[in-house]
Amino acid sequence: MSISMGISHKKYRSVHGRNEQGFTLVEMLIALTAFCMLMSFLPIGIRTVLSHEVIDQGIQRMEWEVFYSQMKKEIRLATEITVLEDKLLLKRNNDTILYEKYGSNLRRRVNYTGHEILLQNVVSVQFERLRAGFTISVTDLNGVDYEGYLRSIISVDIK
């Protein structure tokens, strides 16, 4: 009997002596929970990436507001304004400033040189002369229309 006890005791000691730890059920559940939490954010990330591409196809509201503010400032400084259907000419000091559609952009040129992009993803631009100023109407690639009324504070010739 003492021999069998010594053998069984020896087996018991050798199992703990190797220090082999297995992957327990609790550890597996923790890893699975962490994996599921990470995967739950995947659809949100994909939706954000895909919706970002849609936003870039049109004129963003902030882009329009910045453009409109710059136009108002330039109109205040102009001494002469000529409104054509698809172009706007401003005279300021000795400079002629031209606003026109160029491809899918609205650009600004000074003395018919340069190429300053003001708005992108533009389908159509239309300027319309009114009694005390003019309106600008812009349609973007998504079919969204933007319109603004501009007039000079001082008396200028609007042709």
From TrEMBL:
<keyword id="KW-0178">Competence</keyword>
<feature type="transmembrane region" description="Helical">
    <location>
        <begin position="21"/>
        <end position="42"/>
    </location>
</feature>
<keyword id="KW-0812">Transmembrane</keyword>
<dbReference type="GO" id="GO:0009986">
    <property type="term" value="C:cell surface"/>
</dbReference>
<keyword id="KW-1133">Transmembrane helix</keyword>
<dbReference type="InterPro" id="IPR016977">
    <property type="entry name" value="ComGF"/>
</dbReference>
<dbReference type="Pfam" id="PF15980">
    <property type="entry name" value="ComGF"/>
</dbReference>
<dbReference type="Pfam" id="PF07963">
    <property type="entry name" value="N_methyl"/>
</dbReference>
<dbReference type="GO" id="GO:0030420">
    <property type="term" value="P:establishment of competence for transformation"/>
</dbReference>
<keyword id="KW-0472">Membrane</keyword>
<dbReference type="InterPro" id="IPR012902">
    <property type="entry name" value="N_methyl_site"/>
</dbReference>
<protein>
    <submittedName>
        <fullName>Competence protein ComGF</fullName>
    </submittedName>
</protein>
